[in-house]
Amino acid sequence: MSYCRQLLAVFAAALFACAGCSNLPGRPSESSIPVDPDDVTDFALLYGKNCSGCHGSEGKGGAALSLGDPVYLAIVDDATMRKIVTNGIGGTAMPAFAKSAGGMLTDKQIDIVIQGIREHYGKPNTLAGLIPPAYSSTQRGDASRGAAVYGTFCASCHGPDGKGSAKASSIVDGTFLALLTDQELRTLVIVGRPDLGAPDWRNNVPGKTMSSQEISDVVAWLSAQRPQFAGRPYPSAAKPAGELP
Question: Which fold has domain 143-224?
Fold first, then answer.
């Protein structure tokens, strides 16, 4: 009987020792255990999965505005960035990312993305003391004045009527304008698209910067070119494919 008790004690001790092992057959390793998406706090991972598809790796080279542009980061504040990331921009390709608005990110993750963008891509003293035009303006632009502003600052690259030239593409294309809000147009005029060779508001004309009002006016002119309904209209004598007589 004493021998049986000893054998049971040894077996129990072995089981107890094995219970603490992390390499038992069938036991998942720590690295293989899925992480709750809400617990992800790595900026590179959050940016790569949620932002890089449109804004490009390292904030550059994407279809949308370069978030890695120090000039953009110098004119936009955190509250504005948070609002855009949280709620998206209605009627455009920018979706809402906050869970509260139907997205996938927590408020903490949105703060990590915003702070990470500034830490990785922002550059102190980018504007060297220069006061830039306001990111947004409460003053309405005037389209008729905007036509003259366009002629001064933009026509040399985009052509006299905005339909493009050998230097740059059309900026009055209806589909292009339908994808952008007036605020997005204003932002593009101010910061340019350095990844595409488009200068910011300081460098369209050597030695002459655009004023905030001139930017508002040229945006009003561009907005006036935006069609009510985007897309190529069907010829009057033809019906769209699939439409019944």
Answer: Cytochrome Bc1 Complex; Chain D, domain 2 (1.10.760)
The DSSP annotation for 59-108 comes to: G-SSSS--TT-HHHHHHS-HHHHHHHHHH--TTSS----BGGGTSSB-HH
Q: Provide, rounded to the nearest whole percent, the portion of the chain with pLDDT above 70.
A: 81
Instruction: Parse the chain into domains and list their residue ranges.
Output: 39-121, 143-224
Q: What mean pLDDT is reported for the chain?
A: 87
Return the bridge partners of 193, or none: 198
Averaged pLDDT for residues 194-222: 94
Strands (E), the chain: none
Confidence bin at 97 (pLDDT 50/70/90):
very high
Two domains, one topology: 39-121 and 143-224: yes
CA triple 221-207-137, angle to 5 deg: 40
User: What is the tens place of the pLDDT at every residue in 212-241?
Assistant: 999 999 999 999 999 987 766 555 555 555
Contact 41, 108 (CB under 8 A): yes
- Count of other CB atoms within 10 angstroms of residue 79: 9
Q: How far is CA 119 from CA 52, 65, 123, 155, 232, in A?
A: 16, 18, 8, 36, 43
Q: How is domain 39-121 classified at the CATH fold level?
A: Cytochrome Bc1 Complex; Chain D, domain 2 (1.10.760)
